[in-house]
Amino acid sequence: MRILLVANGASIHTTRWLRGLAARGHEVALATDVPSGLPVRQFPLSALTRGRLNLWTLVRQLRSAMAQFQPEVVHAHYVSHYGLLAALARAHPLVASAWGADVEVFPRRTALNRRLLRLALGRAAVVTATSHHLARVTRAYLPPGAACVVVPFGVDTDRFRPPDRVPAGLPLIVCNKHLERDYGIDVLVEALSRLAETPWQAVVLGEGSERGALTAQLAAAGLRDRVRLAGRVAPDTVVECLQAAQLAVYPSRRESFGVATLEAEAVGLPVIATRVGGLPEVVEEGVTGWLVEPDNPAALAAAMASVLADPAGGRAMGARGRQWVEARYTWDGALTAMESVYQSARR
Question: What are the pLDDT digits (tens) for 2-16?
Answer without folding.
Answer: 999 999 999 999 999
